[in-house]
Specification:
Blueprint lengths: L1 H35 L7 E5 L3 E3 L4 H10 L18 E10 L2 E9 L6 E4 L1
Antiparallel strand pairs: 1-3, 2-3, 3-4, 4-5
Length: 118
């Protein structure tokens, strides 16, 4: 009986920790979009996928994403420093002028800065 309580406590702790990361990532991306979207008020129905991690994004891919930018976003964006190791990513879907669009944002390990997006 005591062992099952330990598993329940561990499960709840993991769930709460992952929810916190999701929330932090969403707030960071929302602030980025508010600052750098051409017209953030025109983006409707914003929805986020679950946060994930990746090691498959290297410096050259980050430079390409930074150079290309994305439609509906300003030029000359200031990005966070590229960390070593894993990056978190968060996909954001939204509606703009009747079209459903999506961007993927890559964040540092602290979830405080967007380092690139596409």
């Amino acid at each position: 009986m005591k062992l099952s309580r330990v598993y329940i406590i561990i499960g709840i702790s993991l769930l709460l920790a992952s929810c916190g990361k999701q929330y932090d990532a969403e707030k960071t991306v929302e602030a980025f979009v508010d600052q750098y979207a051409e017209n953030a008020a025109a983006l409707r129905g914003i929805d986020f996928a679950d946060i994930g991690t990746t090691r498959h994004i290297n410096d050259s891919l980050i430079q390409v994403m930074r150079h290309r930018g994305a439609p509906l976003f300003k030029k000359g964006i200031t990005y966070g420093q590229v960390p070593e190791g894993e990056l978190y990513y968060l996909r954001m879907r939204f509606i703009h002028e009747g079209d459903t669009l999506q961007n993927t944002f890559y964040l540092n390990q602290e979830l405080t800065e967007v380092v690139a997006f596409k």
